[in-house]
Amino acid sequence: MSLTKAPKRHRFPVSIISQAVWLYYRFNHSYRDVQEQLAFRGITLSHETVRKWCTKFALHFINVIKKRERKPSDKWHLDEMALKINGELFVLWRAVDQDGMELDVFLQKRRNKKSAIRFLSRLLGTYPAPRVIVTDKLKSYVKPIQFICRKANHRTHKRLNNRIKNAHQPTRRKEKCLIKFKSAPGVQRLLSLMGKARNIFSVEVGRYKNKAPDQRLAFSDAKAIWLEAALQLLSV
Question: pTM of the prediction?
Answer without folding.
Answer: 0.93
